[in-house]
Design goal:
Layout: E1 2-5, H1 11-19, E2 23-25, H2 34-37, E3 43-46, H3 54-59, E4 65-68, H4 78-83, E5 87-90, H5 96-111, H6 114-124, H7 129-135, E6 146-150, H8 154-165, E7 169-173, E8 181-187, E9 190-195, H9 201-207, E10 210-213, H10 225-230, E11 235-239, H11 248-257, E12 260-265, H12 276-279, E13 284-286, H13 295-314
Parallel strand pairs: 1-2, 1-3, 3-4, 4-5, 6-7, 6-10, 10-11, 11-12, 12-13
Antiparallel strand pairs: 8-9
Helix pairs in contact: 1-13, 5-8
The protein binds nicotinamide-adenine-dinucleotide.
Nicotinamide-adenine-dinucleotide is lined by residues 70-72, 92, 95-96, 99, 150-156, 173-176, 214-217, 222, 240-242, 266-267, 289, 291-292.
Length: 315
């Protein structure tokens, strides 16, 4: 069995596959050469960069399995692959904790203006130090504030657990609410069960100090001008879900008007080159779609993927 890990795979996952007799190539073949080169392989694993579309599946009749290291499978024509008898696997749970921590990196950044001080202090230097310091002196705490979590799936629930640990109130909205209470690890081996408060989308938007988005990709933004209008003045938004879920024009408008105090963004309409007015905005904390990019998550993803692939080829 030959596997092409086109967007790489964690060394632990690679070792597991090789120990099971599967040969793994981690060379990165450019998208336009894949239809020719992938013909020599039985399986391919991708992250978000490589696309496995209908034409590529048609060009590779030997292909038996497509593995996606991560959650979103919008870079794979899943239904078509399955029609053709090609198995498709993703690793939905492995990165949730890492994405949830990144949400808090953005929240802590925004409430203390780190995104702006990190940019300006090295440029303005000591000459303007006092003015700069004054402008960053009106931070606020997260403790006691309300976090609205839109999309209460795997990542949304991990975000809630951290929020409870930080002393925040949590409101949740999900069209398919399931979990009614969460077990929060408090350290020292102590855990606590905390009930989840579900509200309507409108209530969540109107009552939250911070809103964090954890929904799947959708053609139409989940947060647009209408939703921004319903938010509290000075509210903030974090989006570590998928580009396209927030209307970026509307976002810029409310950042500029002062209605929104800041935004934390890991995902964008145009990746990897988002629009510059967002990239340079003093109220935007930026990360380049690295929600799942921790050593721990990548190892869990590699192990989960390797286990799925080994089990598939054992059948
Ligand atoms: P999940 O499927 O476990 O949860 C998504 C939840 O959203 C579901 O409970 C669903 O019912 C709910 N939902 C669907 N449409 C909704 C809507 N319009 N409003 C409110 N809720 C809605 O998925 P997950 O693992 O929690 O992942 C959430 C998102 O995070 C996905 O878009 C995924 O691709 C993305 N993600 C991003 C990164 C990153 O690097 N930033 C990493 C992993 C996952």
């Amino acid at each position: 069995m030959k596997l092409l890990a086109n967007d790489g795979i964690d060394p632990v996952g690679k070792q597991m596959l090789e120990a099971a007799g599967i040969s793994v190539d981690t060379i990165n073949i450019p998208q336009d050469q894949l239809s020719e080169k992938l013909q020599n392989y039985d399986a391919i694993t991708v992250r978000s960069a490589t696309k496995v579309r209908k034409a590529l599946i048609d060009a590779c009749p030997n292909l038996k399995l497509i593995g996606r290291g991560g959650v979103g499978v919008d870079n794979i024509d899943v239904e078509y692959a399955m029609e053709k008898g090609v198995a498709v696997y993703n690793t939905p749970a492995s990165s949730s904790a890492s994405v949830a921590e990144l949400v808090f990196a953005h929240l802590f950044t925004g409430v203390r203006f780190l995104q702006d001080s990190n940019r300006k202090m090295p440029i303005e230097g000591n000459t303007k130090f006092n003015d700069l310091k004054k402008s960053y002196a009106k931070g606020i705490e997260l403790r006691g504030k309300t976090l609205g979590i839109l999309g209460f799936g795997r990542i949304g629930r991990e975000v809630a657990k951290i929020a409870f640990g930080t002393g925040m109130e949590v409101l949740a909205y999900d069209p398919y609410p399931s979990t009614t209470e969460l077990e929060v690890v408090l350290g020292g081996g102590v855990t606590a069960k905390v009930p989840v408060i579900y509200v309507t989308k409108e209530e969540l938007i109107g009552q939250s100090d911070f809103i964090s988005l954890h929904v799947p990709f959708s053609e139409k933004p989940v947060i647009g001008a209408g939703e921004f209008n319903q938010m509290k003045k000075g509210a903030a938004l974090v989006n570590c879900s998928r580009g396209g879920t927030v209307d970026e024009d509307a976002l810029l408008e409310v950042l500029n008007s002062g209605k929104l105090s800041f935004a934390g963004l890991d995902v964008f309409d145009n990746e990897p080159t988002p629009r510059t007015d967002l990239l340079q905005h003093p109220k935007v904390s930026l990360t380049p779609h690295i929600g799942a990019s921790t050593n721990e998550a990548q190892e869990r993803i590699g192990v989960e993927l390797a286990t799925l692939i080994i089990n598939y080829f054992k059948q």
